[in-house]
Amino acid sequence: QVQLVESGGGLVQAGGSLRLSCAASGRTFRDYAMGWFRQAPGKEREFVAAINWNGGNTNYADSVKDRFTSSRDNTKNTVYLQMNNLKPEDMAVYYCAAKYGFKDSTYYRTASSYDYWGQGTQVTVSS
After folding, report:
1. Listed residue (32, 35, 27, 17) closest to 118, CA to CA
2. Mean pLDDT, to the nearest integer, of 52-80?
3. Which pLDDT value is given to residue 85?
4. Which of these, 5, 16, 80, 100, is most buried using a 10 Å CB contact count?
């Protein structure tokens, strides 16, 4: 089992920034690719970003490319999502997820790929 706990969500004005963190425990963190997804009210959960096991490559949804950056620190068992220039349409509950494996991050764009999920953290963007 892998336990994931997100933090860092909150209320921010449009154009502002937030950094989400996801702390993992339970298994060897570096054996897992990590993903970020979000879900707004009345909408399906959607892919935001993925990062491979060693942070060597990342993959982003077109809607967040050039604004969001995912990184990880395997010594701290933590993955991050830096969100800049936030827009009202970014408002959602953000989830991190873990998938055992060592493939390129492009393999991890779908929610069904993941084995473990965090409880989510709310991001609210005011216009």
Report:
1. 35
2. 97
3. 98
4. 80
| Residue from 8, 12, 33, 32 nearest 22 by CA | 8
Return the structure tokens found at 107. 């393999």
Which pLDDT score is estimated for 74?
Answer: 97
Tell me whether strands 10-13 and 121-126 are parallel, antiparallel or unpaired.
parallel
Which candidate, 2, 4, 11, 1, places its Cα nearest to that of 79?
4
Structure tokens at 36: 């970020």
Burial class (CB in 10 A: 0-12, 13-18, 19+), 17: exposed
Structure confidence at residue 58 as a pLDDT band (50, 70, 90): very high
Cα–Cα distance for residue pair 86/27, rounded to 1 Å: 33
Predicted confidence band of residue 24 (pLDDT cuts 50, 70, 90): very high
Tokens of 59: 């993959």
